[in-house]
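Protein modeling request. Please complete all fields; requests missing the sequence field cannot be processed.
Requester role: graduate student
Desired output: 3D structure, token encoding
Chains: 1
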Amino acid sequence: MGQIEQGLERALRTRPIPSSTEARLRFLLAAHRGSTWRVAAVLGVSQRTVQRWVTKKPGARRPPGPMQVRAIEEAVLARWQPRIRARRRAQAEANGFVFHTRARFGFAAPAGSSDDPRVRWITQDLPGEVARELFAARDVGAGEQQQTVILARALGHAYFREWGRRAHGLHVAFSDVEFADFSIG
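Delivered output (185 residues):
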């Protein structure tokens, strides 16, 4: 998961997901009404394996491996605060969001210019159209590169060209994202 995807996930949540694997398993069990069989089906393991992970008996407990820990985290993320996530997404698509980033920006400009890429901190209000495009790309499985292109185009128009008031031929190169965060509402 890239910086942009992580930033979107943070913006859609109001509370962090449970931090320990045990707490995440408890959440999954609660979400599936205590059924270890359903949790096992979601995680792609056997029911007995899930029972070993959550047992209270000393010596019988087995911790999940690294691949299973990642699967547990992804399952929790997919089920964490669904109504709040939908509400915040609708709010971003309607009203826009504020994008905060530290990344390398450069420009495709005529020869002889001094527009070499450099790291910049940028905080910019972006409209709901950008949010809709970003979420639509994310929904169809677009990677970090496609999301970067969407944000580069939006930042180029809003920040560097000041909504079309200057630098009309400027094309923005956006790379090496160190930090990306979104503020909704």
